[in-house]
Amino acid sequence: MESKEILIAELTKLLNGGTAHVGLQDAVANLPFNLLGERPHKLPYSIWQLVDHIRIAQWDMFEFSKDGNHKSPKWPDDYWPKETAPKSEAEWENCLKQINVDLKAFIELIESKDLFEKIPHGSGQNILREALQIADHNAYHVAEIIVIRRLLNAWKS
Predict the structure, then answer these.
(1) What gap in Å lies between CA 18 and CA 9, rounded to an integer?
(2) Measured CA distances, 117 to 3, 64, 101, 120, 125 (Å)
(3) Which of 154, 104, 128, 141 is nearest to 22 (CA)?
(4) What domains sit in the chain, N to C, each tagged with a CATH number?
(5) Which of 9, 20, 83, 106 is geometrically suited to a Cys-Cys bond with 62, CB 3.0 to 4.6 A?
């Protein structure tokens, strides 16, 4: 296997949740809908807000990586949902689906691009940096989701 193929395989594992910790799909599996808006112990965010934030930020990094005309949302206001809970189970499911669709498309992008080439419309970023940033950002917030689930007694023991 060539070095590029090895790197892409490892990035793909990392983007899908890595091998050293729980990924997003496991972090939200079997989560009761009524707990999505809970903010235990006066935490400033709910599981819904964290998951929707992951969706928005990942989408932004993906779009930035491929589209020179992309306009990022206003930081930080437009990266966080105002509502503590989704309006419906359909909104929740659509959020999770969009995260998966965008992640799959981003992985296809890293498979087709030079990971080290500067993004023409960026300020020095490359696709590798964006891949690592998505993985790092998602892992950080997935850990927060698990902490909230533990505080709500809704995490496997």
Answers:
(1) 11
(2) 16, 14, 24, 9, 8
(3) 141
(4) 3-151 (1.20.120.450)
(5) 106
SS3 sequence of 47-85? HHHHHHHHHHHHHHHHHHHHCCCCCCCCCCHHHCCCCCC
Cβ atoms within 10 Å of 78's Cβ, excluding its own: 11
Helix ranges (DSSP H) in 84-126? 89-112
Specify the length of the chain in residues. 157
Measure the CA–CA gap between 136 and 21, rounded to whole angstroms.
12
pTM of the model: 0.96
Question: How far is residue 31 CA from its own chain's centroid?
Answer: 18
- How many angstroms separate the CA atoms of 122 and 120, rounded? 6
Question: How do residues 92-144 score in pLDDT, each as one tens digit?
Answer: 999 999 999 999 999 999 999 999 999 999 999 999 999 999 999 999 999 99
Return d(Cα 88, Cα 147) in angstroms, integer. 23
